[in-house]
Amino acid sequence: MINNKKVKLLAIAAVTVQVIGAVLNRMVIALNGGMPSIALTVPVGKWVPLYQGTKLAVLADVIRVGNLAFSMGDLFFIAGLIAEMILLWVAIPQGRKFLPLLVASVLGIFFFIAGPNNLTPTILCETAALLAVSGMYYSYRDDLRKRTAVTLLLIKVIAE
């Protein structure tokens, strides 16, 4: 069983990896007026084409996976997110039934945020993710309350 201190350290590490990814993406976006992408020839929404004058081109969307293009920042962010989901799975076994909803929601967020004018589906996926995490938390809290009540009852019975 994983203890609280290890859970906190792993959570801090996962969030740190996500922050690194977000910072890498923000740097290249700020320097180029949008995210340069190897998959584009004309600007589309928040993406701009990659060209010879692109600053920090190594951090742009240059990693091709099928028709998609990812950046180093995206990979860091996704790695941190996966670590957090694994951590939730390990740390809150009572909430495991909500993990599929969380995974589907996060995938939806990534899918819809990539396209222009997808605000409504993105907000719906973010709301579903929030509900999934809330469900995990409240499942954990209810289980903890039940265990505390049983423990107090046993202490009372033993004391008498």
Please list the strands of the largest sheet in the order they lie side by side.
Answer: 1-2
* Estimated helix fraction: 55-70%
Q: Please give the largest β-sheet.
A: 2 strands, parallel
Mean pLDDT: 81
> How many helices does DSSP assign?
4
Radius of gyration: 21 Å
Strand content: 5-15%
The total of beta strands comes to 4
The shape is elongated
What is the N-to-C order of secondary-structure elements (H for helix, E for strand)? HEEEEHHH
Alpha-carbon distance between the two ends: 33 Å
Structural class: mainly alpha
Spans of at least 5 consecutive residues with low confidence: none
Q: What's the number of structural domains?
A: 2
Tags for this model:
single chain, 160 residues, mainly alpha, 2 domains, two-stranded antiparallel sheet, 4 helices
Topology (SSEs and partners):
Layout: H1 4-32, E1 35-37, E2 47-49, E3 63-65, E4 68-70, H2 72-91, H3 99-113, H4 119-159
Parallel strand pairs: 1-2
Antiparallel strand pairs: 3-4
Helix pairs in contact: 1-2, 3-4
Commentary on this structure:
By secondary structure, this protein is mainly alpha-helical. The protein has 2 domains: 1-91; 94-160. It is built from 4 helices and 4 strands. It has helices at 4-32, 72-91, 99-113, 119-159; strands at 35-37, 47-49, 63-65, 68-70. It has a two-stranded parallel sheet with strand order 1-2. A two-stranded antiparallel ribbon has the order 3-4. A hairpin with a 2-residue loop joins β3 and β4. α1 runs antiparallel to α2 (72-91) and α3 (99-113) runs antiparallel to α4 (119-159). The protein is elongated, with a radius of gyration of 21 Å. The mean pLDDT is 81.
